[in-house]
Amino acid sequence: MIKVGIIGAGRIGKVHCESIMRYVKNATVKAIADPFMSDETKKWAQDMGVNEIYTDYHRILEDKEIGAVLICSSTDTHSLISLEAIAAGKHIFCEKPIDHDVFKILKVKQALEKSRIKYQVGFNRRFDHNFRGAQAAVAAGKIGELNILKICSRDPDAPPVSYIKVSGGIFLDMTIHDFDMVRFMSGAEVEEVFAYGAVLVDPAIGEAGDIDTAVISMKLTNGAIAVIDNCRRASYGYDQRVEALGSLGQVAITNDTESSAVISDKDGVHSEKPLHFFLERYMDAYVAEITEFIDCIVNDKPVNVGIDCGLQPVLIALAAKKSLDCGLPVKVSDIAKKYGL
Amino acid sequence: MIKVGIIGAGRIGKVHCESIMRYVKNATVKAIADPFMSDETKKWAQDMGVNEIYTDYHRILEDKEIGAVLICSSTDTHSLISLEAIAAGKHIFCEKPIDHDVFKILKVKQALEKSRIKYQVGFNRRFDHNFRGAQAAVAAGKIGELNILKICSRDPDAPPVSYIKVSGGIFLDMTIHDFDMVRFMSGAEVEEVFAYGAVLVDPAIGEAGDIDTAVISMKLTNGAIAVIDNCRRASYGYDQRVEALGSLGQVAITNDTESSAVISDKDGVHSEKPLHFFLERYMDAYVAEITEFIDCIVNDKPVNVGIDCGLQPVLIALAAKKSLDCGLPVKVSDIAKKYGL
Amino acid sequence: MIKVGIIGAGRIGKVHCESIMRYVKNATVKAIADPFMSDETKKWAQDMGVNEIYTDYHRILEDKEIGAVLICSSTDTHSLISLEAIAAGKHIFCEKPIDHDVFKILKVKQALEKSRIKYQVGFNRRFDHNFRGAQAAVAAGKIGELNILKICSRDPDAPPVSYIKVSGGIFLDMTIHDFDMVRFMSGAEVEEVFAYGAVLVDPAIGEAGDIDTAVISMKLTNGAIAVIDNCRRASYGYDQRVEALGSLGQVAITNDTESSAVISDKDGVHSEKPLHFFLERYMDAYVAEITEFIDCIVNDKPVNVGIDCGLQPVLIALAAKKSLDCGLPVKVSDIAKKYGL
Amino acid sequence: MIKVGIIGAGRIGKVHCESIMRYVKNATVKAIADPFMSDETKKWAQDMGVNEIYTDYHRILEDKEIGAVLICSSTDTHSLISLEAIAAGKHIFCEKPIDHDVFKILKVKQALEKSRIKYQVGFNRRFDHNFRGAQAAVAAGKIGELNILKICSRDPDAPPVSYIKVSGGIFLDMTIHDFDMVRFMSGAEVEEVFAYGAVLVDPAIGEAGDIDTAVISMKLTNGAIAVIDNCRRASYGYDQRVEALGSLGQVAITNDTESSAVISDKDGVHSEKPLHFFLERYMDAYVAEITEFIDCIVNDKPVNVGIDCGLQPVLIALAAKKSLDCGLPVKVSDIAKKYGL
Fold first, then answer.
1. Do residue B194 and residue C329 have CB atoms under 8 angstroms apart?
2. DSSP secondary structure code for residue A133 in this structure
3. The pLDDT of residue A114
């Protein structure tokens, strides 16, 4: 039985806590820490059966009984807490992105090299039943050699501009999941990126120095071409799809809905919108990723979504950002070189 | 916090136990009883946090702390245990059917009349997201007045003949869910039934005195016509659909799949089969029905799927059986009269 | 080159005329006859290149150059004109039904027996791309042995009561196509019929002695069970589907739409209604049936949809009518016996 | 009644001839010309009712009775014949592309400016029921302001390398239709293009100096971003789709199939592949475009798909070609400037 400490009691920290308490065999949440621990959150933690509630996460790192931590705090603290947790000998599940600064990610990577610590990055979409279905088909050779990979990723609505300002920009905040999906689906790396971006949803996003709509095309190391389209607004809900064309065929996925009910009336044939947002769409995926993390610890298996899966999408995102800024295609290796990679 | 006792530790008893321990607020499973309690089941119960494990369910009925029982034992014991549990003052969730013998169901009904006990029957399909989506559309008037109701209900494969022999026949064992769905979807009662049946899947089922394929048509009290088609074998999986035509339009549902992945290749366009069987398809529905049961107790709400929901489908099933036997349409009221109803 | 005469210049006569002039190789329309030949129709005929326009169809029968006639007049004249055309040695395409009176159909059948005349009945639905796709799958054994056959057939709106009064009733007017589809899809005959009917669309239809909503179940000679659901009103358009379950799987078809455009917005996901009515849905099927008729003549092939395909659905319809009247299942052989069959 | 001459009796010339003879009111084909007029083609023309059959198309241009010509000859002759036909005062339907050389297109444009001649370019996809459905939704404001436009366009298999060599390259041969679709769907012009291309289908295509797989992203003058993905091979058939995201929602289309039959069996749920290639998919669109052309002549309406619709996609294609060659985004205006535009 692995005892887990959760650092950060925000939305995603709570999701993981509930996942572990309800579904994950061999694991329980012993403690949770958050500098802003409201009474409501305290009550929620107690209801979940978590009795150790701290404002200082170091209490978790110091607890010898705790074998693994989940870092669910704000992005700017991920790398520092990762380093501390490594020093404390804890296995680590860290929410994405590890950091916007590649040097900080590399420090974590370096620290891990000397350890036997399991380090998993929170790319939940890899555990979604639909993306898994598509990836399994590609990996099984059902579409042959990959030729074209298309990822559609759209939020139901733009976040507040205050969030945008600290988000690191659309590529590091939103597209980063899609860059991870490109790697997951293709089994290849991104060689070069070209990005078109626009402010079409909210001018305030543009004033904050970001874009809200983008089409990013990529050359992959296996010769295939990939393209992502992003928008901060899809009035019909959270739209997350992938389509892969290969030498033998195509695989594509659609979104999930609340029910399959279809109403036909004088105005047309109406089915339901996609599930509204990521918590609805990916709830099962969150359980699956934590289950795999605990399984890696308990059975000493290598982590599938490790530190490199945390690093590469950041490099691609930085290449995309540079491409957008200068209006030219950018090689990921040119970004990597800056960091001695 | 309601303490629950589970009587019967078979497949469905375990499902409900896990539902309560994981998802149902305000409830916990205090004890579980089964005359054949294997070591494996004992271990499973302990892992779930259930420490009181009995072979005699009376231990549960005698426990003053236990406020509600789930009757998940074999069908022939449902009505007796119901009566004992009523006498013991427990709230009751009883798996369907309450009994194949209407008199026994009526005894339970009678006993309940003198009590304030909550009695819910396990028609899980009413809690399925797809059926709920369709029913909600009908209830909201989106298709206007109901004209035609079609229910498709097919198992992936026939059960063993040993099961068939004690099942009470296809109408009481399998179609009973569909009769309940007719009532749920239409908000009306079945007036008359006409059944065609055949043995097309397995001759041994015919030798056992049952059929494996049926089409049952019905006149409803609201004037609509309903039809159910049943088969014990659908090579592509568990097929559970409904389609309702009304004066303003139609609502229809399809099955759930593991993922939405669609593969297009030189042979065609391929999507996944429906989820294989009821445990996969209705897992969330099982949680929802128990959640509602506990909610009715805690907040003293009337039970939606009560004793009459347990009684009516049995009357309809008996009418269908008689129709099949004599090759004529049969009024449900003629069956009811036999029992003084 | 077969020269064709068309008897009856109503809606369907015009459809066939245009089909022949535009698409059917080896055939041309030489003459058209209708007792009520409007100026508009005359102009239409001339535009189509048909110069011989008569009010008396005997002019067509007398024309030695004309090798084939299409009987598109009112139903009550079909059998008489058939007999006259047989006597005149013309090949015959006769719209369905041949007659409501079995004796009259039998006279035609008898007259044909002594001749080498090709006689095709206008069951256009057999030539529809969707129904053909489903039938081909069944015939190719893709679903194994047929177990359950379901046909859905609904008109967008009820015809005027004046039409209902001379229609012969829903079973002879509307369901007759579906009875033909049961035979086409199953490759078997209908043994017994049980019909439920109701007046749910328009009370005036009931006052005219007919019903507007029906569910008809049938036992087939191959052991399978079939069921048809009919309604004179489907607010979302012409709804024509079939679903066949067999030992190895299921085949099902859906309706055609004007375009595949799907709009997703804040209210849901919207696709188009089925094509509105039979002329839109079956336009290509009308061409295909006439093409096959001409091909049978030119290449002296046996007719696929011959006199027996015209006879059997009438017998089944009469059985359905009797079932509805007396509330009991009716054997088709009992109807047939009345006519010495 | 417009008398039409067809120049070029290849596949597409025949399609147009049949369209006119069968479906287009107010028009007939008086003559057809092709330097290589086989006996088979002659017979086909006679069967269609075309009696004037020439090897020299000037015979058509000289015929005073002929009011309109269809230029269906090889691409390299389009502009010259256009000029001659303009000089002869004929209305012109010219297959796409008018030429690979912008100067030659401009000469045609110049010649047209002094005339009242109707000049339509053969972008058939604008007349396809699915693309029309999507475009109508966009034009009607159903998705609000356009944000992202995605076009998928894949051939079932690569043409012979001999064809590739004279095709002008994938952008002028295949993508040109998609560039036209970008303009049609968006109602805007392409400002800048960035193309990724690869040889993934057939190395011989690469040896011939072309690519077979491409992803082309574009900035549009209305601020939206568009992306096209092309492949010369889609094992599952001709794949032609569009998806448009706007401020209020999304519209998307799928492909057509032979029938809607869906077979469910133990291996999955199988539907049909898209129609195999352009003649199957766009047969109705070919009729519609010629019908509109004749209508513009007869009713003196402005042509919708005129010379500029022929010019712009060539400019975009040249920009895409340059982008691929130099690995940089290219402004369409920079291409246009070269030609004094």
1. yes
2. H
3. 83
